[in-house]
Design goal:
Number of strands: 2
Number of domains: 2
Structural class: mainly alpha
Strand content: under 5%
Order of helices and strands: HHHHEHHHE
Distance between the termini: 68 Å
Radius of gyration: 33 Å
């Protein structure tokens, strides 16, 4: 076991011996480049989701210019600021969309019928299938079983419903 460990350490040292250590300038350049790539990816996500990020794009362009001028610290800072602007814009837009969707869902649910009064077959062809199919009920005829289960006390046979019966419509 000791021989294997010594061999592994020696192999590591030999492998590392040929590699030159990275200078501080090279490390700063790579850090700036990584920050730029990260900001570019975030701006691309924003573009896909149609989130306006003009300020973030401007900062990214300034970051690239600073990188060309070999001002790596300035480049990294601007790229990180660009990422932050884009991320905040994306988060804000997603939150606004979620809020709008929740409000629309509440409005839609409030317009949905809570009960339904059966009308004559000749007038509306009322049956559980056709009731469930109505836009203000489920807009899906396959949901007729929900009405049946919620109203089992009123419906002995799902094929036989009568004019004037009032059914609860579960949501």
């Amino acid at each position: 076991m000791k021989k294997i460990m010594i061999f592994a350490v020696c192999s590591f040292l030999i492998a590392c011996a040929g590699k030159k250590a990275m200078t501080a300038e090279e490390e700063a350049r790579l850090n700036a480049r990584d920050a730029i790539i990260r900001a570019e990816k975030m701006i691309a996500v924003c573009a896909e989701e149609e989130v306006p990020v003009a300020e973030a794009q401007k900062l990214l362009d300034e970051s690239k210019q600073a990188l060309e001028e070999k001002d790596y610290l300035q480049s990294k800072e601007k790229a990180e600021a660009s990422y932050s602007f884009a991320k905040k814009a994306l988060d804000d837009m997603r939150e606004a969309r979620k809020k709008a969707l929740d409000e629309a869902k509440k409005e839609f649910d409030s317009k949905q019928a809570a009960t339904y009064t059966v009308r004559s077959w000749a007038e509306t062809r009322d049956c559980l299938w056709n009731i469930a199919k109505q836009k203000n009920i489920y807009n899906d005829p396959w949901q007729w079983k929900k009405i049946y289960i919620a109203n089992k006390d009123k419906i002995k046979d799902p094929d036989l419903i009568y004019k004037g019966q009032v059914f609860k419509i579960p949501r």
